[in-house]
Amino acid sequence: MGASKRDQYFSSQLQLAEVAKSIGHPARVAILQHLSAHTVSTHNYLFKVVKLSLPTVKQHITVLKTAGLAEDNFLQNQHFVYLSANADKLVGHIPQVLP
Predict the structure, then answer these.
(1) pTM (predicted TM-score)
(2) What is the pLDDT along the chain (99 residues), one digit of tens a residue?
(3) Helix (H) or strand (E) holding 72
(4) CA-CA distance, 74 to 31, in Å (whole number)?
(5) Residue 44 forms part of a structural domain
(6) 25: closest CA among 4, 1, 56?
(7) In sequence order, what are the residues at sequence separation of 6 or more whose Cβ sits closer than 8 angstroms to the Cβ of residue 56?
(8) Which residue(s) pair with 73 in the sheet?
(9) How many domains does the chain have?
């Protein structure tokens, strides 16, 4: 969407569109479901869970972070990923994403 057309939508509509786009890939849904069940994970472990390359997993995590669904921290040479505090609120209308 062109930048000039974004101003005709409410911020809540734009945010919902960003969240919907971020969960539009099965790998990202799998990552969210894993984080929901396990609270925290590492990039290396998620790459085993979704069976994609590590760079691809990192790209998916970046999309989830941009939408406000996930956060990560770097601690002792590991990237830890977890759901953001408001992830349930952001996907509240889509309950199948976070069981």
Answers:
(1) 0.80
(2) 555 677 788 887 777 778 888 888 999 999 988 998 988 999 889 888 899 998 999 999 999 999 889 999 988 888 899 998 888 777 775 554 445
(3) strand 70-75
(4) 18
(5) yes
(6) 56
(7) 27
(8) 80
(9) 1
Amino acid at 69: L
Note whether 28 and 63 are within 8 A (CB): yes
Q: Give the separation between CA 83 and CA 66, rounded to whole angstroms.
A: 12
**Amino acid sitting at position 16:** L
Residue 4 lies in a domain: no
Q: Are the C-beta atoms of residues 91 and 20 closer than 8 Å to each other?
A: no
Could you write out the DSSP letters of every residue in 2-66? -GGGGGGS-HHHHHHHHHHHHT-SHHHHHHHHHHHHHSEEEHHHHHHHHTS-HHHHHHHHHHHHH
Q: What is the largest CA-CA distance in the chain?
A: 45
Question: Domain holding 46: CATH number?
Answer: 1.10.10.10
